[in-house]
Design a protein that fits this description.
heterodimer; A: mainly alpha; 0% strand; B: alpha+beta; three-stranded mixed beta sheet; two-stranded antiparallel sheet
């Protein structure tokens, strides 16, 4: 618990530092079908860090719902969402950025959480403490972490 | 050779979660070789607008090892707390110098069938009451004693003692008449997506039961087995403590145990188990 709070705090600080150049969560331009064509940071994503974000429980925790062959070194992949192998073939970079930033714009009503959203929640809480928190909340991932995840997803090819 | 064996094992591991755990199993639960439990049955009529046609006890979603712990009272750690509840039943407390037994005598007779019908409308109090609320009413009104904390050890012990008197009987919670309004409120909560993760009870326990969420095999979130002895925290867990944990996991502000919101939710979730056997105290992980 302590550990994840520390990570979260670190993430918030990073978000603050990167704010100057990053697109703020409320400013992201989603296309008609949920894609986001503009990079959130203007900097290329780091796929290795993206992989780390996806499998770390206290950060992206993507594998709690998705199976990802390339991340099999981390245990316990979930079955809630589709297997992500080949995601880089099925989707463009802009589509993947949109899905990670706010999947509900691509898949209306999706169970997948919005990773770059800070307002408009029912009973928003302070992380996993169960106590109330004021909006805007820090987004689940920073702009750069999202770019890193997108860069990693682009490497997932069936071919 | 070694490389190949490793690869084969890896392939098996990859395949295993999907194959082994995609569905709840078909085992049957008989406790102490005599109490036959209904752990799967047709969903009650009020669920006809959902995709669930069969309701299932959380027991089906646990490993064979965990399941076995509930098949014999000597292996069920929850039974230790039933004994503690029995001691509380007979112990005088409060200004009136009474115990539960002073009014209700033999728990096996007076409490038989009680767990199966709660929460229920109490006409005198003019509200829907849970077993926990009724226990505390007796303590404060009839015994002149302090109420138990809503999710305290003493409360869990007493709930276990009361639940065990109805083991094997079908859950039969009334949802019409004056209870209806509270039930509707509970239903609304069940489908409300809370917290920063925007997840409802239904997202996990209606749309995804049988699926793995990380290392957890999702059940239907039934409460016929409460209170539940969990291997994870090695204690008896109450319904509202479990609800609180699940809401917290959506990164939401939780509701308070004993609040109207959780009483309404308990009534609604209990009614989704109408027809399953009372199993408490059950064993889960």
């Amino acid at each position: 618990m302590k550990f994840s709070t520390a990570i979260l705090a670190a993430a918030v600080v990073t978000a603050g530092a990167a704010q100057a150049e990053s697109v703020a969560p409320g400013e992201v331009q989603f296309g008609e079908y949920g894609a986001v064509s503009e990079s959130l940071t203007g900097k290329p994503g780091d796929p290795e860090n993206g992989a780390m974000v996806m499998k770390t429980k206290s950060i992206g925790n993507c594998i709690s719902c998705h199976e990802v062959g390339a991340l099999k070194d981390a245990p316990f992949h979930g079955e809630i969402g589709p297997m992500l192998d080949g995601a880089g073939d099925r989707w463009s970079e802009a589509q993947l950025r949109g899905i990670v930033a706010n999947a509900k714009k691509t898949f209306p009503g999706s169970m997948m959480p919005a990773y770059y959203k800070t307002e408009g929640f029912v009973r928003p809480g302070d992380a996993f403490t169960g106590t109330a928190a004021e909006e805007p909340l820090p987004p689940l991932l920073t702009a750069q972490q999202i770019e890193d995840v997108v860069a990693f997803l682009m490497t997932l090819s069936d071919g | 050779m070694r490389m190949q064996a490793k690869a084969a094992i890896a392939a098996l591991l990859v395949a295993a979660p999907g194959l082994a755990s995609a569905d709840p199993d078909d085992d049957t639960l008989v406790v102490n070789g005599e109490i036959e439990m209904t752990t799967k049955t047709a969903a009650p009529d009020h669920m006809s607008d959902t995709a669930v046609d069969t309701i299932m006890s959380g027991w089906h979603f646990r490993s064979d090892e965990t399941q076995a712990l509930q098949m014999d009272d000597f292996d069920n750690s929850g039974m230790i707390f039933v004994d503690e509840g029995r001691a509380q039943w007979n112990r005088e407390a409060g200004s009136e110098g009474k115990s539960c037994a002073s009014c209700h005598e033999d728990v096996a007779e007076s409490m038989k069938g009680v767990r199966a019908t709660y929460p229920k409308w109490d006409a005198e109090a003019g509200e829907v009451q849970t077993v926990a609320m009724q226990i505390n009413d007796c303590r404060t009104e009839n015994m002149g004693a302090e109420p138990y904390g809503y999710t305290s050890t003493e409360m869990a012990n007493m709930e276990a003692l009361i639940a065990v008197q109805s083991r094997g009987m079908p859950v039969d919670v009334k949802i019409d008449g004056p209870a209806r309004e509270m039930w509707e409120q509970g239903k609304e909560l069940y489908y409300t997506r809370t917290g920063q993760l925007e997840l409802s009870c239904a997202n996990c326990h209606e749309d995804n039961y049988g699926n793995m969420i990380r290392a957890d095999h999702l059940s239907q979130g039934q409460i016929n087995g409460f209170p539940t002895y969990r291997l994870k925290n090695a204690k008896l867990n109450t319904v509202h403590a479990r609800f609180k944990g699940c809401v917290r996991d959506t990164r939401a502000e939780t509701y308070k145990p004993g609040s109207d919101a959780f009483v309404a939710l308990e009534l609604y979730v209990a009614s989704r188990g109408n027809g399953l056997s009372v199993e408490g105290p059950s064993v889960r992980n």
